[in-house]
Q: What sequence folds into this?
């Protein structure tokens, strides 16, 4: 069965590190891996990383130097900048986590190795074409139930593993304001494939994915400094990834592993960042629900560029921001391809995925 | 919040009772309700019901007397006959359970009141149009997460609540044969709406539904004596119900409550019953996945009759059995309407549901 991959197969991407406790707590699980830290704020400030960690750190000056004019597609002063780390990594798997997320405990009181569970999720197939009532059929002690078509039991490759949060739930500002004391204490012991055709709100706090399969679609958009919207970076990536996974026959799982989300961000600040998104998502979600990608879009890159065109044409009518975003999506793909020139292997993987 | 309904709102339908322990174990939870027992075998045999239960019992002779020639739509010598109980009930809610299903315990060791959880599921809305990563947003301590469109938070009425099984999982004969010792010990503490457009294998062992909303689609088909197929009664009902719920804007939930499934049925006998279904489902499921119901089908009955026509036309090519089944589907609706003449209230409910 699935095991934690070797160091040369996975990078951990962290948008910033505001406290040293974060890495100390994760030390037993992270120390053997390479970290990519993408500093989301003022490049003149120094991020301290405790001894013993193998890491590379990029601030805004580095991003500008590496990408040149294409650096415009990377958000500034917003954790959305983390996607630069996805681009510069050379590994097959990425695990990304926020610095206010700590090690959670399972109901028996044992520390949860989130990374290990994500890798299990990614290495097991997904079954997005029919719902299995006992959830992930590939877990120990589970299987496909009576009535599950045998032709669908092979499943498809899993591209994304979306983990959850104990303690502070990932609520929007209005819900935070209405329910300031709500805590998530329910450990739901399951992983499931999100069915084909169904969108979901992908949270970037505790997320892993297969770069070879879906990396170029994991763009976190234009958020933060100079943009009319924040806190929709991961949502944007989630909508795009889900539509592309459905089109290319790839799977997305959600559920385990849990992390412990230690503190709620300020709901008043969040409301300011979110309010445009709260309006716009009412049109964006039907747009993605109804999106059709052409048969010619057989790679993630081709899908993404086709998607950018539709964003420009259809969402551009909502606000000029989406025209700028559509341009940035294309720039992102150009930058991705520049830093990740296609190899024979990756071309093969993409072809297999698109079958 | 949701409470257990009064006696005059719910009936418990049981296909047969082969042992007295079954009702004794459920006595604290069932005694206040009315039972409808539909005897699935030889009508000359007597089913014993312990003292203190309020029940009505129908055997084959009763079914023939009540339905006349239309009794042909009710299966004989198969637990699929239970759907006759749905038809003769006059209550809003039905809970149906098999006689080898006992009271399960939650992780704290407390007896699970399955009926109460089903009613909670049915009284809370479903959210089939977008996936909520914290599962049922209406449970205590949960809500909609960031990025869930506000316009979809009202949800839709829940028509079906599908419960699960600890101990013996509901596997098909091949899986039973391959994994004779597998037991389900994982208590997954969740309920979720099955997304629109996604089919699922509905098991009749531990199932509740709102008769007013979906009753006429809860037909368990032609199984058992004289039929080329068995163990697909609940699956058939599940496919039909899901497509109709999606069309009419109703929800189906799965997950809690668990019952304890005490013994596995004989896999060799099951294989004999299932083998046609195992072949046929490979064509039946795409048929249901691609089914479109017309705008004119605004009630469950109209949907079901339209569906019967498509079954005849498209599945009739697989085997003459489906032509017979399509006829039986129409007969079932005629019988349902005869025993349940539309009232002003039910017409209103159906119109509301179809909006």
A:
């Amino acid at each position: 069965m699935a095991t934690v991959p070797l160091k040369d197969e996975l990078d951990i991407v962290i948008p910033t590190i505001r406290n040293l406790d974060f890495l100390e707590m994760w030390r037993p699980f992270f120390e053997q891996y390479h970290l990519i830290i993408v500093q989301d704020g003022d490049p003149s400030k120094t991020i301290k990383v405790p001894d013993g960690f193998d890491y590379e750190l990029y601030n805004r000056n580095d991003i500008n130097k590496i990408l040149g004019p294409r650096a415009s597609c990377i958000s500034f002063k917003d954790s959305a900048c983390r996607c630069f780390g996805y681009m510069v990594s050379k590994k097959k798997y990425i695990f990304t986590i926020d610095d206010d997320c700590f090690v959670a405990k399972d109901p028996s009181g044992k520390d949860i190795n989130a990374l290990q569970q994500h890798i299990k999720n990614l290495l097991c197939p997904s079954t997005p074409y029919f719902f299995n009532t006992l959830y992930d059929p590939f877990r120990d002690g589970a299987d496909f139930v009576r009535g599950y078509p045998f032709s669908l039991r092979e499943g498809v490759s899993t591209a994304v593993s979306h983990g959850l949060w104990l303690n502070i739930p990932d609520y929007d500002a209005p819900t935070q304001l209405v329910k300031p004391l709500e805590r998530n204490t329910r450990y739901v012991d399951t992983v499931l494939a999100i069915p084909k055709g169904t969108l979901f709100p992908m949270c970037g706090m505790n997320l892993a994915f297969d770069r070879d399969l879906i990396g170029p679609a994991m763009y976190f958009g234009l958020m933060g400094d100079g943009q009319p919207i924040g806190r929709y970076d991961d949502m944007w990536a989630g909508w795009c990834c889900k539509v592309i996974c459905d089109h290319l026959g790839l799977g997305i799982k959600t559920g385990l592993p849990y992390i412990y989300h230690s503190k709620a961000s300020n709901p008043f600040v969040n409301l300011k960042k979110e309010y445009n998104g709260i309006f716009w998502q009412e049109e964006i979600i039907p747009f993605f629900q109804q999106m059709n990608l052409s048969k010619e879009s057989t790679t993630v890159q081709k899908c993404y560029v086709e998607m950018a065109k539709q964003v420009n044409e259809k969402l551009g009518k909502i606000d000029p921001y989406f025209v700028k975003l559509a341009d940035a999506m294309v720039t992102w793909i150009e930058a991705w391809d520049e830093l990740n020139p296609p190899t024979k292997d990756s071309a093969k993987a993409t072809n297999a995925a698109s079958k």
Summary: Chain A has a mean pLDDT of 94. Chain A touches chain B through 56 residues (CB under 8 Å).
